[in-house]
Design goal:
Layout: H1 5-22, E1 29-31, E2 35-36, H2 42-51, H3 53-70, H4 76-97, H5 108-135, H6 141-158, H7 160-173, H8 178-181, H9 190-216, H10 226-229, H11 234-240, H12 242-254
Antiparallel strand pairs: 1-2
């Protein structure tokens, strides 16, 4: 992507749009010091369907810019990669389940596919931030692992479809979709992509479930010593959740 000038420009546009909407809402916290109202989360989803990998990098860079205005912390490293996958997963999933259709929801089945793609992106994004902040003993997994999903999905369901309906036909007509800009960017065989989605679902779903159970204390693994099960649960989550995060990324690599 970085060797294609137009894709680099689209990356810069995606980052600028995301940061421009993120920054003003830094003053509207949902959980003070943790996360804020983020209507900007609609931007990576829209740009993902339009610009593909350029949107993924733009989402990561735009979030990093926004974090600088809210006070940088070590957890922002995980936020960078979480937003990278938040902009990467929607178009990757749509390449497999979309059937060549527009991502603008126009039927119940199209809406279900759209929700599925956005949910996979939101959960993996939340897993990475919750897992990373828990490993650094900054915040428990359950605090971020759930709020981020709700925040992402609210924007993806309420705002993104309307923006897509207005923008997608014009971008396609102007031949500025990522498939037009980078025709050499061909997806892997269908069988690999289906296997990738399956691994992604198992990995991120398992990471979310285990992360919540461990960080809230609802499950205390008897096979781990007591000092590993003590709050802030960074050790137990590192041992049990990290392999599932890697499994999710293995699935994403196959896609």
């Amino acid at each position: 992507m970085w060797r294609n000038t137009r894709m680099v420009v689209l990356c810069a546009i995606s980052a600028a749009l995301y940061a421009a909407v993120l920054v003003p809402f830094k003053v509207v916290p949902l959980i003070p010091g943790v996360t804020e109202l983020r209507p900007a989360n609609a931007i990576p989803v829209v740009c993902s369907f339009l610009f593909g990998p350029a949107a993924a990098w733009g989402s990561a860079i735009g979030n990093m810019i926004g974090d600088f205005f809210g006070g940088a912390s070590p957890g922002d490293i995980f936020g960078f990669f979480a937003n990278l996958v938040y902009g990467l997963v929607p178009f990757k999933v749509w390449e497999t389940i979309g059937g060549g259709e527009s991502p603008v929801p126009r039927s119940p089945l199209g809406l279900a596919k759209y929700v599925f793609a956005c949910l996979l992106a939101s959960v993996l994004c939340a897993d990475l931030v919750g897992w990373g902040d828990n490993l650094l003993a900054i915040r428990p997994f359950a605090m971020l692992g759930n709020v981020i999903i709700l925040n992402n999905m609210a924007s993806a369901m309420v705002l993104s479809p309307f923006i897509l309906a207005a923008v997608y036909p014009r971008v396609r007509k102007g031949r500025m979709l990522y498939q037009d800009v980078m025709p050499e960017l061909t997806p892997p065989p269908a069988a690999l992509r289906v296997a990738g989605i399956a691994l992604l679902m198992i990995g991120e779903g398992g990471a979310w479930a285990l992360g919540n159970l461990l960080s809230t204390g609802y499950w205390v693994p008897a096979f781990l010593p007591a000092w590993m099960n003590a709050a802030p649960h960074d050790k137990s989550i590192a041992i049990l959740v990290s392999p599932l995060i890697l499994l999710a990324f293995a699935g994403l690599a196959l896609m």
